[in-house]
Amino acid sequence: MIKDTLGRPLRNLRLSVTDRCNLRCEYCMPEDDYVWLPREDVLHFEETSALVDVFLSLGVDKIRLTGGEPLLRRDAAALVQMIAAKPGLQDLALTTNGVLLADQIDALKAAGLGRITVSLDTLHRDRFKALTRFDQLDAVHAGIAAAHRVFGRLKIDTVVIRGVNDDELVALIEYGRAVNGEVRFIEYMDVGGASRWSAERVVSRREMLDRLARRFGAIEPIDEPGSSAPADRYALADGTTFGIIASTTDPFCRTCDRSRLTADGMWYLCLYATRGLDLRAPLRAGLPAEELQAMIRGGWGARTDRGAEDRLALGDRRAFVPVQDLLRKDPHLEMHTRGG
Ligand code: SAM
């Protein structure tokens, strides 16, 4: 297992399979149009699979497919099938907005997908439309019902934004119970794409717990020693569990073992990194696996990133990439390109 300068192992790979999305969530990709990755740069499944082999050989054992919206990638289940069977892989998961999930769930399960997370920020149809610009809440509900049927359980990721959906914490937990979905509330992050972020719109973990305790009574933290998971988990008195990802007010950089590969083969060591390592060019140039391994080992060995902590230390902060023009010039700065 290889470790970075802070002793963090390389274990968790987030594989963005497309930069395209079929929603326009205001906190992620609020614009109508973007500069997309050139089509010819997007890795073929065989190329992605070859890079995954290299990562697995270096100790990665968890992979999450993301995007953009991963289910927009044609025949995503075929990629799942190529990856799921690989030796050394412990966990293969997928994060989706759920819109296309109902149609693909059986193929994904048959292909060997292990776990599903669906992003859902509101249970109100009008709000969903205002937040995502598409009237697709029914499709997401169908996707979640399908995930419940086929996988038995799922996770539901909710970005909490003051004045947008912070009055739905209780309702979302109750909804989660009904579909066997563990809700994870994510503090609103000032990542690339969140060009309308402001500190006032962040609802902190503390505030979320206070609000939930007012409705549900005592909330017990679940102790998970050694966990590198971003969510702190909690249990209500009736046993219902949920998580909070406090990336903005209490970042988990010190245990972060995640890196991100974009659909065009750029490797990023932090969600806030402004530079990545191009793995597509050497792969397409025919570099042998050992040399790709050496590149990745060297990159991870030199990793110092603590992006979310650096952002927190700034005190008075604004959106990470405030100027939409800048985002337009470099799609790699976007959350939807590097994968949330
Ligand atoms: N399209 C898929 C989806 O909706 O889950 C996968 C990609 S999306 C970028 C992955 C996750 O990033 C989603 O759960 C989304 O809510 C989260 N995300 C995007 N922008 C965020 C922000 N500014 N703060 C916190 N989470 C964010």
Give a structural overview.
The chain is α/β, with parallel strands linked by helices. 33% of the residues lie in helices and 16% in strands. It has a twelve-stranded mixed β-sheet with strand order 7-8-9-6-5-4-3-2-1-10-11-12. A hairpin with a 5-residue loop joins strand 8 (232-235) and strand 9. Helix 1 (45-57) packs parallel to helix 2. It starts with 11 loop residues before the first strand and ends with a helix. S-adenosylmethionine (SAM) is lined by residues 21, 27-28, 66-67, 69, 95-97, 119, 157, 159, 186, 188-189, 191, 193-194, 335-336, 340. S-adenosylmethionine binds at residues 21, 27-28, 66-67, 69, 95-97, 119, 157, 159, 186, 188-189, 191, 193-194, 335-336, 340.
- State the shape: globular
Largest sheet: spatial strand order: 7-8-9-6-5-4-3-2-1-10-11-12
**Beta-strand percent range:** 15-25%
Order of helices and strands: EHEHEHEHHEHEHEEEEEEHHHHH
Short structural description:
Helix 1 runs parallel beside helix 2, helix 1 packs across helix 9 and helix 3 packs parallel to helix 5.
Please give the structural blueprint.
Elements: E1 12-16, H1 45-57, E2 62-66, H2 76-84, E3 91-96, H3 101-111, E4 115-119, H4 125-132, H5 137-151, E5 154-160, H6 169-178, E6 181-187, H7 205-216, E7 220-221, E8 232-235, E9 241-245, E10 258-261, E11 266-268, E12 277-278, H8 280-284, H9 289-301, H10 307-313, H11 324-329, H12 335-338
This protein binds S-adenosylmethionine.
